[in-house]
Structures are given as C-alpha cells and as structure tokens.
Amino acid sequence: MLSIGVMAQGQSSYYIGLARQDYYMDGGEPPGIWHGQGAEALGLVGQVDGQQLTRVFEGFHPVSDATLVELQNGKGHRPGWDLTFSAPKSVSVLWSQADQSTREAIQDAQLAAVKVALDYLESSCEVARRGKGGQQHELGKLIYATFEHGTSRAQDPQLHTHALLLNITQRQDGTFGTLDAQDIFKSKMLAGAIYRAEFAYQLEQSVGIEVKRDGIYFQVSGVPKTLCDEFSKRRAEIETVLQEKGWDSPEAAAFAALSTRSVKGHVPREELLEKWHEFGRGHGWSQAQTYDVIGKPVPERDPKVQLAQALGEVQGKVTEQSSTFSEREFLRRMVEAAPGRGIRANDAISHAQKQLHDSPEIIYLGEQRSSLGGQRGESRFTTREMLEIEKSIFDAVEKSRTAPSCGVRESVLTGIIASRKSFSEEQTDALRHIAEENG
Question: Per-residue pLDDT tens for 274-296?
Fold first, then answer.
C-alpha cells in the first residue's frame, strides 16, 4: 500500500536523522538512495549524504551557496512529502524468515517496484508551478530520497520504503521552484497499484515467489494467515482501539494509528532477525517451509491472454459506481488487475492507454476542466454499453411525458433490474422513479 504524509518544517530533523551513518550502523538499516530526474540535475546520485539532504530540505543547492527556492511569506520552507510504500504482510513475514541472499532479492524487488511508481508520478503529474500566483502547471523534474526500513513501530517485520519527495522541482526552462502536490495526491491510489503490480511481478520473476491476488492487493502463496496475524501486533493495537470506541471509518482508523503510535526504537536488524526466526519456530514455521515457498517455477502465462483477461475484468467494473470514468481511474483498475497474472505495471498501463484511445467499446466524452487556472483537466470516458443504457433511460423519460400511463408490476421491474448487472444505484433509482410516476 501507499500512504502520503506532509512533512512540516519541525519534522525535518527526524528525516535527516535517517541518513546519519551511526543510525545505519546501530540500526542495521541500509543507506538512503537518491532518485528522480531533479536529483540527477543537482548531481545527487547514489547514496544519500546527510549534509546534502539537510541543505535540500531547507531549499538550498546541495553543494553550492545557491538558493533554489525562497522562503514562503516569511514562514519558512515546507520540506516535502513522505510517500511510504509498504509490502503486503505475507511478503514481510517471508522476508523475516528467509536467508540473507533471499532477503536481499526481496529488497531489490521492493526498490525496483518503488522506483517504477515514483517514475510514473514524475512523468504524469503536473507539479511545477509558474506564472502569476503559480496558476500555470507543467511537468517537473522531481527529487526523491528513498529509505528502506524493515520493522513496524511494534518491532514486527514490515518491509517498507520511505520515498521523501522534496519540495523542489526543476521546471521545463531549467529554473527551480516549489511543488503543487495536488496531482500527486490525486494519483495516490494509482501509484500504490503500480507499486503492487510491479512488486508482484518482480517477486515472481526475480525471486521465484508465487503470488495470488487478494482483492486489489496480493499475498504470497504458502505463507499462512495465522502466522501473519501473529506478526501483526501494531495492527492489533489499532483494531483494539477501533473496537473499544465503536469506530469503523477510514478517518477513525487513521486517528487510531496516530493515537497509538509509539517512538520507534533503533534495534539492530540482525538482532531482530534472530528474534523473528525464533518467533516463527515457536509458531510452527520451519526453514523447510520457507524454502518450499521460495524458488518455485513461475507458472507459464501468455502476456497477451492475461492482458485481455484483465481488460475484460476492468471494463466490467469501471462503470459500477459511476457512468463515466477518468483515465486515472481506468489505469488504476487495470493495474490492480495485474498481480498474479505475470503482467508488469508499465505493460498494464500501456495496454490500458491504448484501449482508451483505440477500443470501439470505450467512448471519449471530453475534458473536465480543472478549477485551478492552467492546471490541465481530466479526460472523461464511458463504455458503449453504458451510453446505450443512459440513452434508453433518457428515451423512457421522454416517452413517459406523452405516453398514456401504464403500471409496471414490481416483479417485472425487479426482473429488469436484475438482468442489467451494470446498472448503478443511481440508474436503478431513476428507473424505479419512472415506473412509480407512470404507475
């Protein structure tokens, strides 16, 4: 999954601490890695240096005295955003029980998946601002500092990557400015789906770990849910609070997560791995079972067949909640259908984009303009089937204005609704309204 947190000025010391050499030596976590075209433009390549990160956090060039972005209204410079990519629990549990070479292979797959998601955001989100009041938006070169961690705050295995998106972007003309992150937030679910799809592909192809879809997520085949639950003390804390308070909304879950958050201790990774292996053995998990899960031959799949099947699934679901959809929504659903099919995230995106423009079953409706000045709007689409449904409802309304009234039995109406699986709730209500008015 992907979560996005806003970094305030007062939080910068925590993130800067992630790059300290003694933290990694004492904590056993790997060093941070720079990523993004903006980082490359500033000469930031490879391992993150604490001093350079500090300077960029504060809006300065990493090695010179140049100021990249000015203070905003005298209130200081907002450092940026923390994009956290968390592996499915079954992956983290398997990682905690594996040998070093397998753990490193899983970590490489994690980083590769994170980079694909970050690259998509950079290539598609108009974050750079220019013009009067920053109303004009364009693509910009981004600066990411990525940090891999292996534990939750409760010291359970939780493989995740903090991708710090710094609030500095290089615009098309080579100048620097701050970001407008609205497009990033709008693309959160899509970027998270891209990460999961690529991670699933990398695990199967590079590590030999078979995955299976679990709704819009995926899990590792062969890792029991009971063991994952035993390694989920942090989640159990949050669920306890929700049950005690009688809360069930996503907002309540987020609040419970913050209210139960403890200070994360720096325990050496090797020490934790020993405890995790012992814990696994105590709950019936053996090294033999770990090796049974790893290194399996990947099922043979025809990419064209898998893409066609995924597309059919998406076209059947994309209009379930609304009669129209955006490109972002269509891409997200297509990428969500990829895990367990041997489909790379970028291949799923390319196939979906081609279908939006070439498929006779998808109708382009035009562009919904943004209320924000020069920021581009979103193209809207519908399916041919949905267009025909909407037309039939409109025709029925028009006909009802002049046609003699005639009743529709409830059994007949229920049968009609049941036969049209693609009817949304709003369309069902409209049809019942028409029947009642003419009954």
Answer: 888 888 888 888 888 888 888 77
